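Observation: inputs received (chain + magnesium ion).
Thought: call the complex predictor directly.
Action: predict_structure
Action Input:
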Amino acid sequence: MELIVLWDIDHTLIENAGVSKEIYAAAFTGLSGKEPMGPARTEGRTDRLIMRDMFHRNGVAEPDWAAVEEALTAAGAARLSELSRRGTALPGVREILKEASARSAWVSSVLTGNIAANARVKVSAFGLDSLLDLRVGAYGADALQRPDLVAVARERAQRLRGAQGGVPVVIVGDTPRDVEAAIATGSEIIAVASGVHSAEELAAAGAQRVLPDLMDTARVLGILETFAAS
Ligand SMILES: [Mg+2]
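Observation:
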């Protein structure tokens, strides 16, 4: 059975060890010429929203998105080796991505607030890029609000992979925003409490399947197969 699995990146697939916030800060400084007053507020927001919020809170006029994306891309590219050194792929991730990518009727990609270039940096830093179809999926430049990324990913899966219109979509993510994106779009959700949000918070946001992490490959695969068959 067909299935579109969309993995969130930060705190779901990888731990970025603070490098991600350094990317936002560097992009902000590059564009505004000053240090931000505080760290970027991320937690499942898209890069468009994160940077808009940062400019707003620092009292700086928001530049054109093209300039912001260029600054984020440069800041991300400059930190690939730093991310490899300090960060890590989370436990079980490599195994479950291998299993998902081995199923030819499944599309396994990302749904992330990161712009595409930095999504690639983040998964490549840990050798996960070959286990995902990054052509499809949806990224932080594709929409302001996370729920709107789901339709983008579905359209790409249809156009580039020939997925059928009614194929179930499963989002795997670590924040209430991932859960909300799934609920708002009629998608399934597997929430993982591997970020800052507890299992209770994720359940309160509406997730019926909450796992502590992705270590139990057979269990995660079992849940995904349930959605594929439904
Ligand atoms: Mg996340």
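Thought: report the result.
Final Answer: The chain has a mean pLDDT of 97. The domain at 3-15+88-229 is CATH 3.40.50.1000 (Rossmann fold).
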